[in-house]
Amino acid sequence: MPIKAAAIIGAGIAGLTAALALARHGIAPDIFEQAEVLTEVGAGLQISPNASRILDTLGVLDKLRSVWLEPEEVRLVSGSSLRPVALVPCGKFARERWGAPYGTAHRATLQKALLDAVTGNTLCRLHLGRHIDIKNMLALEEIAGRKLDLVIGADGVWSKAHAMVPGAPSPLFSGNIAWRFSIPEAVAPSVLSKTSVTAFLGPSSHLVCYPIRENAAFNIVAIVSGSGASRDWGAAGNKTQREQMLRGFSGWNRTILQMLEAQEQASFWPLYEMKAGRWHNGSDTILIGDAAHAMMPFAAQGAAMAIEDAFELAGMLSGREPAEAFELYERHRAPRISRLRQRAAFNQFAYHARGPIRLARDLVLSLRPPQSLAADMDWIYGYRAIG
């Protein structure tokens, strides 16, 4: 029997993308979100070609093109000497090589574009301010006022939908803290590039910076090892936590250190990843995005994987029973997620290298032309999701 309606838990990037992708196949989604108003916390994100291609298919990309920035390149730079280490070309090169653009934008910009598309779609229904204890389908059907064929848990690391999937993955603190803040372009130090994504590398820490065109600001994410993690994402770090962060960047270029020292309201984001576990219950509930496989941001693919998950799951649900679609989806997605985990772990090792390993890293990267480094990304950026 064809699937007619589905419940989606969470109205973030994964949930809203899933709603649009399901509606594209004639499946009516009810999206349940506990927040009264959708306000995306966080700051910027990178939308790589594997994700922007999907957003284009869903009719969302055009709204982003007018406000986002297509960086000319992704640069790796020494955090101490500010010496260039390597670069991967983007801009026109990305569109020609991978068949879709590479852009940077504020998370709120992407979420609003998705939300506008969802609210403008007659098949989609959004239920805000729903504090529900998700244990079975009946509670959701009572709110929706109709029979629901399945549940998609797209509600992140602290997923409530986990309760419906025995053996679901559980969050594990990674030992890393992300400090997030933005700086207006008018007062930003000159070491920050207005046309590129820049990753400054250092021992046991790194800092990623890129312009957010619609805000006339730079998005900064500083990642360093830390402790005392909690669920209080987005709060301003306390004095002890800030001192711990600054120690992680000791020995860095003084300009960057001064920039970090001045950010008294930088947001404290403990980074969690998911342990191995089941993504679905074999019958009517499945997890996607961070709810299924949260990973470290060292490959800058968190949002992209959520978008891919949503799009491919919707395609597999079209014309199939949920149980069959779930099995097919997991067999198809799990190897890609596993490979990306490995890539993120390798990037962490390389970015945070010290001593002789750092010197070897810099030498190897300096000998490789940009096109060769770009080829290493073909399997990520050139991926064409099935939908």
Automatic annotation (TrEMBL):
Keywords: FAD, Flavoprotein, Monooxygenase, Oxidoreductase. The keyword Oxidoreductase applies. Its EC number is 1.14.13.1. It comes from Rhizobium tropici. This is NAD(P)-binding protein. Residues 6-72, 149-343 form the FAD-binding domain. It is an enzyme of class 1 (oxidoreductase). It comes from the Bacteria. The keyword Iron-sulfur does not apply. One of its GO terms (molecular function) is FAD binding. Its cofactor is FAD. Pfam families: FAD_binding_3 (PF01494).
